[in-house]
Design a protein that fits this description.
The chain has 234 residues and is mainly α. It has a domain of 126 residues. The longest helix is centred in the first third of the chain and has 19 residues. The N and C termini lie far apart (43 Å).
Length: 234
């Protein structure tokens, strides 16, 4: 149940990211939520070092908003207590804080480190999303597209897939790949467990078709089960 709550929080905050266009701040906040709230999220060996690591991370988390608690403080926990659940969460939080500060190469380094050291843990998909977002914010659009597509194609059961699809659709739209963007928006607009994402995808689809009405005539052929949507101009 706790993991579901954490993932729901991530979804809602990532939705706000897209709605407000303040991608870097809100996306990173989502990662911080995923890392900070999930104390005890993983099943790790019950040891004194794990207890000490969790205590160290909890002390930092209790000081959220304190300007003296920076990314380095969290990354220090990851270094002092390697291979613990607290170290894994600290890497994600540290990477997110670097992302907030616009230090995208450094942030990506932490997400990459997470994937090297904790790839088989439940929050690894958050690190994959972090890498993709860093590439996007650095202007590496083609690499970002590849990273988001990798999440969609090779991790289909992960709860972050709708966010990856939404980001991918947005990048396709920016690249004038309107049919690909339309297909993703249509798929996301179908009713699902994350109603807010479906609503946003439907809004983005409406905007796209208003700009390119010809897309409304072919959508059902490329996205089985999703009828072509037609919108009248306001």
């Amino acid at each position: 149940m706790e993991s579901n709550v954490v993932q729901l929080a991530v979804h809602e905050q990532l939705l706000a990211w897209f709605e407000s266009h303040r991608r870097q701040v809100l996306w990173a906040a989502a990662l911080i939520t995923a890392g900070a709230i999930g104390v005890g999220f993983f099943v790790w060996r019950n040891s004194e070092i794990e207890s000490d690591a969790s205590a160290a991370l909890s002390k930092l988390s209790a000081r959220v908003g304190d300007p003296s608690v920076d990314a380095a403080a969290y990354l220090n926990v990851a270094t002092i207590y390697p291979h613990t659940s607290a170290a894994a969460r600290a890497l994600l939080i540290g990477g997110a804080m670097l992302f907030i500060d616009g230090k995208y190469p450094q942030a990506r380094a932490q997400f990459d480190r997470y994937l090297r050291e904790y790839r088989d843990t439940p929050l690894a998909s958050q690190a994959l999303l972090g890498v993709a977002a860093c590439l996007e914010m650095q202007g590496n659009t083609n690499d970002a597209v590849s990273a988001y597509r990798d999440i969609v194609e090779h991790h289909p059961s992960e709860p972050i897939v709708p966010q990856a699809k939404l980001a991918l659709a947005r990048l396709y739209e920016a690249q004038n790949k309107w049919e690909q963007a339309r297909d993703l928006y249509q798929a996301l607009a179908r009713p699902g467990p994350y109603e807010s994402i479906s609503t946003l995808a439907a809004m983005k689809l409406k905007e796209l078709i208003q700009k390119h009405p010809e897309l409304a005539q072919t959508g059902s052929a490329t996205t089985p089960g999703v009828p072509a949507l037609k919108f009248s101009n306001p």
